Prior knowledge:
alpha/beta, Purple Acid Phosphatase, chain A, domain 2, 6-stranded mixed β-sheet, 11 helices, 12 strands
Amino acid sequence: MIFFVLFGLILAIQLLHWHVLRRIAPHKLRPALPWLLVAIHVPLVVYFALRFMGGEPNGFSLTLRPYARLGFYFQAFTAVHLFILFFAETLWWERFRHHFPELETEAEAELEAEDPTRRAFLRKVATAGFGVAAVGAGYGSAEAYGDPTITRMDLTFPDLPLGLDGLKLVQLSDLHIGPMLGARTVARWRALTDRESPDLLVVTGDMVDSLPGEIAPFIRSFGNFPAPLGCFAVLGNHDYFTDPRPMWKALEDAGYRCLENRNGIVERKDALLAVIGLSDPMASNGRFRGIHFGDGPRPDLAVQGIPDRAWRLCLNHRPSNWDLAVRAGAKLTLSGHTHGGQVNIIPGISSARMMGPYTRGLFDENGFKLYVSSGLGVVGIPMRLNAPPEIVVITLKTTRTEGGR
Length: 405
């Protein structure tokens, strides 16, 4: 059902685009437009069909993948281009009605609207639209692939044990290693993380774009990372697009503890820190093939065996599940998933609002804190706009003093 909805949407957008282009394109190019649009979108439709039919990716689907992605980019460009053209069309009609109020019938209006000056105007707008899209794409690509923002903060908790005071952790999230992000970028992130010298390294999901094998650059760069208190990870929804078990094994072999509804206990200066991990809901919904790799988030399972005196930190990919982390007793929850909106056309307004109220940054409710990282990678399109990539560095602080409980 989802496949047919997506296919219908692709078809509708392209028919609309073709209808607009054939009215303003030069006559010699018009017969070729349908064939050009078909050639661009056949790989996209076939690739979607293969993925929705199930099974592991094979050589044919992997060969189609970059061409399908180009078709997807063209879809995104088409949406922007249509918006610009319809905006221009609206301006034309407003001007037309203002200057020719005597034309009252639709037939007269349509005849006048097809005049050469209108067509020339729309051609100029179409050309300008290409330019605007190109400049926007260049700016967005530079933001996406430039050095990430290093967000450093001290977070104070009255009940934090004295032994955990000053503990520094680094959070990485939403790397999306895959076709749009390779080993060189991951190695640069490793160099930036090294400079922070964290006691604890945590990864809050979506390490790969969609295939377990894409974890290899992360393992090469971040494997056996020298964090004195350890390295922990939870998977995100993209990590469950196919069988995640090879990824679990690769991470465990590289010195990471995968906390899928589990916890790990860290000791520092006689104080205990429980690092809790909640599984992503994607683990239980089987993607599109009925395959299940867990129960989804289960705080009751995640807290089993935690000593009463341990202070609790939760890794939870989706900030919308913060209530489950609070139920697990976590005073600090670290999430990602939203990419900070990734592409925010209007400054100050996050497109991540569609995912819920926790878009990015720090949230505090009744003494429980949530930090939502903007993440590092990209999904869908290779650009960010008003949502720069981010490495989060948090130092835990306490108001307790020696002798205090």
